[in-house]
UniProtKB/TrEMBL annotation, chain A:
This is NADH-quinone oxidoreductase subunit C. Residues 29-143 form the NADH:ubiquinone oxidoreductase 30kDa subunit domain. Belongs to the complex I 30 kDa subunit family. SUPFAM superfamilies: Nqo5-like. The keyword Ribonucleoprotein does not apply. Pfam families: Complex1_30kDa. The keyword Transport applies. InterPro entries: NADH_DH_suC, NADH_quin_OxRdtase_su_C/D-like, NADH_UbQ_OxRdtase_30kDa_su. Keywords: Transport.
Automatic annotation (TrEMBL), chain B:
It is a peripheral membrane protein. Its EC number is 7.1.1.-. This is NADH-quinone oxidoreductase subunit D. HAMAP family: NDH1_NuoD. Its main location: membrane. NDH-1 shuttles electrons from NADH, via FMN and iron-sulfur (Fe-S) centers, to quinones in the respiratory chain. The immediate electron acceptor for the enzyme in this species is believed to be a menaquinone. Couples the redox reaction to proton translocation (for every two electrons transferred, four hydrogen ions are translocated across the cytoplasmic membrane), and thus conserves the redox energy in a proton gradient. GO terms for molecular function: NAD binding; NADH dehydrogenase (quinone) (non-electrogenic) activity; quinone binding. Keywords: Cell membrane, Membrane, NAD, Oxidoreductase, Quinone, Translocase, Transport. It comes from Limnovirga soli.
């Protein structure tokens, strides 16, 4: 499906969806509360079939976080990017690990490095860092005088 | 740490595999829950070689951050560099000269071949056959020598840069690659004879570590591991970059979904890589090996994503630029990380000894997972 056709189909499904166009892939912007119904619809609607979550990244924009989902379909061969805005003071978002199993691992990474809490995740824990590590390294305001070398 | 396992019942045994264990090929730490010899749960604990490459990249310039990626998946360092260079070129809209494109693809395929050779030797060693390891390393040495002559390094090449490649090919390159093609063509049949048909090897591989097509997609498995389950996911075919669109090669698919299917995919891919190298080695166009670029690169504000096929699967580079000389955020979608997420699902119900075979066919490289 082309980006325009995708946009039409998704708008028909969820009327007031916000889009960003102009990039290579169609981008949907939303907030943390609306993420679960949106992604469930993207996964389950026939014709969309976004069955492959190939990248899940956290981004710190200083005022808020973004969780970016890169989704594509192995049958329809189209791709969409979903950006969910997460509150910085109360960084919580629903897990999608029940929709795509790979998210379980990717969400652990985002929790470990950004401190974003995925509600409903089966076992949120530190993945790379030690259990007693303080702070969230990929946040922009993270300071570590020993391990960080600034150029 | 052990409270987390949760599902432990009377009679279960919780053991650690690694971080220092020969079969993990690096510092991977798995906490296994066993019932007798049957695996009930596998929980990976990562971070023993975590260097926070993503954070480091935020303070490195667009020329510098590429070199760090050689240290991610060190067996596909060319391809990692390639992915980053493609992202920067996408941002700056640099047209790469034809000669550089061919050199890049040649180097990518030589790297893939060397990586699969090492995997083949190590895989056979994991399941108890020691000899193939020495055979694989003998031929891999030829590739390393070719790399050393042109790039000046054997493992972390840092050869591909934004706009092309760092330096032109060494005068011996074509001759040596042709010699290697002749040598390897006879050796690969020997490899096949030595291991593939061996009944002990087949018994260790067939019907082990089953991964269905649906699960492979849901777990985000990519590369040869997914193609062993019949998922068509070769980025070189689906979203061709550089000159891959005009090359004649097959995407190898197997439908077994077990360890043997994944073994066959990688083995056959070696022949495909060899065929790509053969197609290109006599057709390297003359011209520049690098496009003219500014000394200091500044990407426009925006987001760029590029995908390439490494020896292990799909590598994605997600780069966010705020218009400065350093990236605002870089995320590497490394193939090993997603492939590892399927390990628990794939090894449940099999025996402890099978875990080694399953990890072998996933071809895990730990720095690629930890980053």
């Amino acid at each position: 499906m082309t980006n325009e056709a995708l946009q039409e189909t998704i708008t028909a499904l969820i009327p007031d969806t916000q889009f960003e166009t102009g990039a290579e892939w169609l981008t949907i912007t939303t907030d943390a509360v609306a993420i679960k119904p949106l992604l469930t619809a993207l996964r389950q609607t026939a014709g969309l079939d976004f069955d492959y979550l190939f990248c899940l990244s956290g981004v710190d924009w200083k005022t808020h976080f973004n969780i970016v989902y890169h989704l594509s379909s192995t049958t329809q061969r189209h791709t969409v990017v979903v950006k969910a805005k997460v509150n910085r003071d109360n960084p919580e978002i629903d897990t999608v690990s029940d929709i795509w199993r790979t998210a379980e691992f990717h969400e652990l990474e985002a929790y470990d490095l950004f401190g974003i809490i995925f509600t409903g995740h089966p076992g949120l824990r530190r993945l790379f860092l030690t259990d007693d590590w303080k702070g969230w390294p990929l946040r922009k305001d993270y300071e570590d005088p020993i391990n960080m070398i600034k150029l | 740490m052990f409270e987390e396992v949760g599902t432990t019942t009377e009679g279960d045994l919780v053991i650690n595999v690694g971080p220092q264990h020969p079969a993990t090929h690096g510092v991977l730490h798995l906490v296994l829950t066993l019932n007798g010899e049957t695996i009930k749960n596998v929980e990976p604990h990562l971070g023993y070689i975590h260097r926070s490459i993503e954070k480091m990249s935020e303070s490195l310039t667009y020329r510098q951050f590429i070199y760090v990626t050689s240290r991610m998946d060190y067996l596909s360092s060319h391809i990692n560099n390639h992915a980053c260079a493609l992202t920067v070129e996408k941002g700056l809209q640099i047209e790469v000269p034809a000669r550089a494109q061919v050199i890049r693809v040649l180097m990518d395929e030589l790297t893939r071949l060397a990586s699969h050779q090492l995997w083949w030797g190590a895989m056979a060693m994991d399941v108890g056959a020691l000899t193939p390891f020495f055979h694989a390393f003998r031929e891999r040495e030829a590739i390393n020598e070719i790399m050393e002559e042109t790039c000046g390094a054997r493992l972390t090449m840092n050869y591909i840069c934004p706009g092309g490649v760092m330096i032109d090919l060494h005068p011996n390159f074509q001759r040596k690659v042709k010699e290697f093609i002749t040598l390897f063509k006879s050796k690969i049949d020997e490899y096949d004879e030595m291991v593939t048909g061996n009944i002990i090897f087949q018994n260790r591989m067939k019907g082990i570590g089953l991964l269905s097509k649906e699960d492979a997609i849901s777990y985000g498995v990519s590369g040869p591991a997914a193609r062993g389950s019949g998922v068509s996911c070769d980025i070189r075919k689906l979203y061709p970059y550089e000159i891959y669109g005009s090359l004649n090669f097959e995407e190898i698919l197997e439908t077994g979904g077990d360890c043997f299917a994944r073994y066959l995919v990688r083995f056959k891919e070696m022949r495909q890589s060899l065929s790509i190298i053969e197609q290109l080695i006599d057709n390297i166009p003359e011209g520049d090996f690098q496009a003219k670029t500014k000394a200091v690169l500044k990407l426009p504000k925006g987001e760029f994503y590029s995908r390439v096929e490494t020896a292990r699967g799909e590598l994605g580079v997600y780069l966010i630029s705020e218009g400065g000389t350093t990236p605002y955020r870089v995320k590497y979608r490394s193939p090993g990380f997603s492939n590892l997420s399927a390990l628990n699902h794939m090894s449940k119900g099999y025996k402890l000894g099978d875990l080694v075979a399953i990890m072998g066919t996933l071809d895990l490289v730990i720095p690629d997972i930890d980053r």
